[in-house]
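Model: You mentioned two targets. I'll fold them one after the other.
Researcher: Yes, keep them separate.
Model: Target one:
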Amino acid sequence: MTLNFDQFKDKASKSIDIDLSSYKMKRVKRRINSLMDRHDIKDYDECLELLKTDRKFKKAFLSHFTINTSEFFRNPKNFNYLQKEVFPELINRKKKIKIWSAACSNGSEPYTLAIMLNELKVNPRNFEIQATDIDNEILREAKKGVYNENSIKKVDTKIINKYFSKKEDKYILDPKIKRMVKFKQHNLLKDSYGNGWDLILCRNVFIYFTKEIKDEITHKLSNALDRDGYLFLGNTEYLLNPSKYGLDKEFASFYKRNN
């Protein structure tokens, strides 16, 4: 008997260790079907068998399913607020600033933070940047610190010249900045969030989850913040009732823990 989509979804979730039910189903089905078309896979039975037996296909499935698009200084207005308001306040208040870039993709977001703190002349011993993602493959790419022109299109020329060297059509990040970021694999749906974070970036992630999962993750992110810590979301993501999570809206996509 041929598997239907719901049966495939449940079995595939176990195979890839990601609960696909947590994501918006229309998006999940669309992306899976497009991948099957690309690989000329006739039905869900064949797709599931390939997930179980073909490591290369499983890697392609995970890569296609997770969205790995990011760039340096994405949404410049928000990063300007971070540099002019949030970081100075944290620098004055904390001996060591703890920062978590969740779902960091290719590393351009946490490296942006490291560049900003370096520009503010903060000693690396006085901050920690942890960057996590569910996709091990993209983490390996992030650690290399090599980017194409599209990744740095919003970066000031002075910053590019100061922190990147160019080799053919690639931009190679200064090793000093790379050393400021620690990468590790993390599943937002299953793994511990830790605590005492002064700034958590979880940007352009909520748009893929169901309302229930978004609510659960927001509670966990808020609880992981230190008192007066900041949560920085994506430009199109907002909390209708931030006080429900013990947060106050500060500016655009920034929320501050109030308890």
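Model: Target two:
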Amino acid sequence: MARLGPAGFALLVGHQFPLGNSLGKTLACGVSDTLPSVTIIIPARPDEPEVQAATAARQLDYPADKLEIILARGKQPSVQRNTALRAAKGEIIYFLDDDSIPQSDNLRRALKHFADSEVQMLGGPNLCPPNAPELEQIFGLVLSSFAFGPSRARYAKVGTPRPSSEKELILCNLMARRDVLLKHGGFNEALYPNEENALMDEIQKEGGKLIYDPDFFVHRRPRRTLGAFCRMLRTYGRGRAEQFRQTPTFGSALNFAPPLFLVYVVTPLAAWLIPFVRSAEWLRGLYFLPLLFYGIAVLGQTIALVPAGGFVRALCALPLIVLTHLLYGYGFWRGLFTKLKPPGERSNVTVKLETISFGGAHPSP
């Protein structure tokens, strides 16, 4: 998409904002200085030579003089983001992962929502690129299935723009007001992953509004191998349990389903050693009844995936849906007993900031 000049940009946004809204009137003036400044924060590894998100961020349809891109290099993403946040100058912060490819109109779309002063955060899905390898397309299909409950909205366009919660928003494609982030002290550095989920819960407790927009999306490849996909599922489960231990909420109740399902599957294997259980046919039948309903639900979900992914991909996704519940459950149980790191333990982690200008990168002072 071609860049719009300040006048064209203001004209476009001026049509999208209500006439009675002061921000809409300001944007319609056609002067780029009146636009809110935006800082894009991208955590990256110390030795990562080319950061895809940084390249894509420079193509966003927004006046260059109102756009700041900070690359935070290090080995602790939550610390990297907090370090960059403290150095950021933008009124609005846009968090991207190093491999997130945002749509060129994402910033313009976001401004429509931030015109409402009650909106503190905005997010949308990260979608598997259509040209990704076949295995990754299957992973993307699993992530967008009901195996992930309401969190499937992080990986698929679901519904229409609406008030939402941490269940649907994800940090690889998230915008927030800088002053709100600083007020809450940024991300909890003792958590990774799920540091953003805990922060979103805190913001909502104080009445802040979170918005999910299915058309505010990035393209991002899922894990490259089955082993990496399995590790991701275990990590997600562990992160959710650690978050629950630090900031328990009723919203986390649904996340107990996979660990309880794992217990349900494993317990009969041990009980089978008891002679009474082995001989009681009625008890075995009672046990397998919920499993039958679960099998029907998974089969129904597989059929529902056919229109989006085709028959072969949907069929390949079936065992991965079951694996998702088992591995997430295992990770959750593990996270209930891991040693939590104190928030200040990672404060001495080395983070190198680079400001990406439209002429190249240079270290931040």
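Researcher: Noted. Anything on target two?
Model: The first strand starts at residue 38 and ends at 44.
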